[in-house]
Amino acid sequence: MPPPTSEAHAADPTVNRRLVLSGFLFGCGIAGSVIDLFVFHLLLQWHHFYDLSTTNIALLTDGLFHGATWLITVWGLFMLGDVRHRVVVPWWRWSGAVLAGVGFFQLFDGLVFHKLLRIHQIRYGVDLFVYDLAWLGSAALLLLVGALILWRTSGVHLRAPASGQPRD
Length: 168
Prior knowledge:
71% helix; 5 helices; single chain; 0% strand
């Protein structure tokens, strides 16, 4: 049996799911490894991933968290690379999935790690209401905007890349 053609890849319904999942994973990874870790853990030094123990444990958990979130980021990029070999990527759709991933990660972090498990807070020694409102509100807004973009681009036709021509 001959290998499937590019047109067969474009018609494959799993390609669209892989496109969206790659953006979602990339967004989750960027939210964790760049926004949360670089900004709040390292730059501002407001908290660590696990603040209920010693500084050494806090730094260890930051390192494990960083490794895990970069792994998720790279996983999303490898999936995107695979999708790019199969179809011309509709970048608006992928960007919507990225925004949804960032929003989901931040919302999950704020609700589960900050509020439910209480393993860290956004910041210490201040009234958390405004910080929680900004954190959870921006997360919900990003998730909503990403979901709206995904919904608006749900009918996009995935076409096979033209052979021998550069892709977008």
